[in-house]
Amino acid sequence: MSDFRRERGTRGRDVVGLGWDVKRDHRDRFKKIAQDSHVSAAVLFELVVEHVETELTENGRPSWLPEKDRSQELPIDPA
C-alpha cells in the first residue's frame, strides 16, 4: 500500500475514473513506480500531468514527444 493517498473529500466534486485501455504491462509498471515512490497511482498520475505541463511547447505538445511525419499528407487549403 502506498504511504500517501489524498484524504477523502480533498479532490473536490469533479473526479472521474480513467476509462482508457492501456497495455497491462504499462499499467503494472506505472503502479510499480507509484508503489516505489510511496504514493497511490492516482496521486502519481496527477503529479505526472503537472510535471508534463512544465515541458510543453508553445503548441501545447510535450517537448520530448516526436513530431508526426506529415510529409506524405496532402495540404489543406485554409480557405
Task: Explain what you see.
33% of the residues lie in helices and 0% in strands. The protein is an all-alpha fold and 79 residues long. It is elongated, with a radius of gyration of 18 Å. The mean pLDDT is 87.
Query: Biggest β-sheet, characterized?
Result: none
Portion of residues in helices?
25-40%
**Could you tell me the radius of gyration in angstroms?**
18 Å
Number of helical elements: 2
Helix/strand order, N-terminal first: HH
Overall pLDDT level:
87
Secondary-structure blueprint:
Blueprint: H1 24-36, H2 41-53
Short précis:
The protein has 79 residues and is mostly helical.
Q: Which short descriptors sum up this protein?
A:
79 residues; mainly alpha; 33% helix; 2 helices
